[in-house]
Amino acid sequence: MKRILLCFAVAWMTGSATAQEQELTFKVIRQNPITSVKNQNRSGTCWDYATCGFFEGEILRKSGKAYDLSEMFVASKDYVDCAEFHVRMHGYSRFSEGGSCDDVLEVIRTHGICPEEAMPVSRLASGDSLANFNEFFSLLEPYVEAVAKNKAKDISLQWKEGLLGILNAYLGPCPTEFEYEGKRYTPQSFATSLGLDWDDYKSYTSFTHHPFYTNFVIEAPYKWRPRLSYNVPLDELMAIIDGALEQGYNVAWGGDVSEEGFTRNGLATTDEVPSQELRQQRFDTWKSTYDHVMLIFGQAEDQHGQKYYMVKNSWGETGNYQGIWYMSRDFIALNTTYVFLNKNAIKQ
After folding, report:
1. Which of 71, 214, 233, 304 sees the fewest Cβ atoms within 10 Å?
2. Taking the model in full, what pTM does it have?
3. 160, 163, 334 from 156: Cα distances, Å
């Protein structure tokens, strides 16, 4: 398993465009509304940015109103949840910057959410307004590990105060009340005001080491929260993505982007022919890992008739398409770990 969480944007700022990339042109087949492209910068929070963007799109689809939800509110609350889980597991779990769509959903359900403007400006780096977790996590991670692997027969709960001290020092304290557009909210009441049913969102996957049409917890290190995903054959998984997009729903995507076919310039292709068997082999041998989360919001095809998905990344307006990636259908079929979407988007 790769030791470095690949959702760090800076980890991929290498290479150059190929002749194929320079020659491709795309025709948009379908494009659902999304909010603006954000920049996770030097933080392993792709899961956070992609899923907040997904929920912003859900609100936009239902109400026509654009919100900017606070990713750092989610990160702060989730790292507390993850630390508590890690300590209860005596260190036999993963505490890291990484996460999944389930984390954002559970944070909102449990703790609420706030708009970006209600969250204090992050104190992560002097003179840097974008998230930089280099110093922050070099302090936070060993602190949590020291508690989780403590040799004492019992521990006090004072460690939680220290944890909050580090989080508040770097991310800023999460608001308990705030004013937004002339109204007072708590994070919980603000989440309720968004008009979404948080029970509508589920994760779907496709592997053969568990029976199809059953739920299981995907065995991926950064999916520390033990929430279930529903397992379907690969052709049905792809039909779920296509059907959702056709009905105006976006799809959050978690998968592997460490392959050479995924470039920094906004293109992802593969020369391999995806199949159920190949997916399983790659997953079992660690060739395919779960290392990035993005948002699928449209479909396109190139001048040769090859099908692509339009995907919003969280590295700012980089690449040839201002922060949008064109990922081939074969690449998605081969490298998807799970998709996360509104269950009402699935055709019966």
Report:
1. 304
2. 0.92
3. 9, 13, 47
